[in-house]
Amino acid sequence: MDDHGSRAQDVVRCDLCQITEIPMYCEFCHIHLCRDCVAKHLSDSSKVHKVVPLQQYITTLRYPKCRKHPIKQCELHCEQCDIPICVDCILSGKHSGHAILDIFQNFKDKKILPARLAGPFPPNQVLIDVPITAISTGYEELYRVTYLNETEVWTCGNECIIRLYNTRKELVRSIQTKSGNLPGDIAVTRSGDLVYTEYNDRTVNMVDNTNTQTVIRLQGWKPCSVCSTSSGDLLVVMNSDDNEPTKVVRYSDSTEKQSIQINDKGQALYSSSGNKYISENRNLDICVSDHGARAIVVVNQAGKLRFIYTGPPPLFIKKPFIPYGITTDSKSRILIADHINDCIHILDQDGQFIRYIDNCDLVGPCDLCVDNKDCLYVAEYFMGKIKKIQRYK
């Protein structure tokens, strides 16, 4: 399976030589390395590197950085303020007399007792996750889902056909890709037009009624993910032919306006290969689910890094966190498909973990989207189904 189709059965490879034995990981560059390539990677003295065994990176408990004291890690949680805090926060006296918990215990409480959350939910509203319906798409492997309107969603999988289904489980429309290759990703513009990427053909295409037009054609890069923004722009995640760091490019009417690739320290924001998913948040942040880096990377509208989410402490998920699809809702919360752990992570707009959706019998969730009522549509890779989930009662 080529790169654009390497979804739920991705084999993690060395990002330099592409062999499958990858016991090492560079925490700063977010790339996987085999032992033979470590020396070559470290020889690039223009960047800072920290190479560790991959298993150590996956299992290390990572404390969030303190917003008030950025050089400190938050090992505690203030119950009254409902925020993570560091030792310097305690010494400041602002949390005097408040109940203070170990932050890992707080994560555990949020998973087990989500109804106790004081998060950004409407008052007197009971949290509930109920699967409303399941739509069989006919794909042997289902890759993507995107919202069109209150009754219809577009889907794509391991065929060159993109399908539109309604909530009555009926096939409404089918579109074949222009080149006959598998689509990489799908999105819907503000005007309701379908947009899809063709990885091997290096194109981004738009379908207006029955006409398909190539709106972006790349050279030296391949588009792996796309989303339509609130301003009408397209954000395209693309991988390089020459193993350069992956970048996010903003297009307006087929014209490149912005390129997001490195942080203020000159380090790559995204891993250099593998699948990515992208979504614009209501606050205009750009959220990328980086499968290769096993992280969610969020930058602001200007492309400045805001935060990186690498999952909750491993104590509270059974298997490694390897993110797939990503979307956002009307409250600017970020929702992430955790294919390996069969659940959905919900974060606030600042990257703080809120809770899981793990009670809807999800099997291999690989992508997701929300409608205008914050109902959630989840694509199940192996089942070939879209589950619609009502999150509130």
From TrEMBL:
Q: Which GO terms describe its molecular function?
A: ubiquitin protein ligase activity; zinc ion binding
Tell me the keywords, alphabetical order. Answer: Metal-binding, Zinc, Zinc-finger
What residues does the B box-type domain cover?
A: 9-54, 61-103
What SMART domains does the record tag this protein with?
BBOX (SM00336)
Family annotation (SUPFAM superfamilies)? B-box zinc-binding domain, NHL repeat
Gene Ontology terms describing biological process: proteasome-mediated ubiquitin-dependent protein catabolic process; protein polyubiquitination
Q: What is this protein called?
A: B box-type domain-containing protein
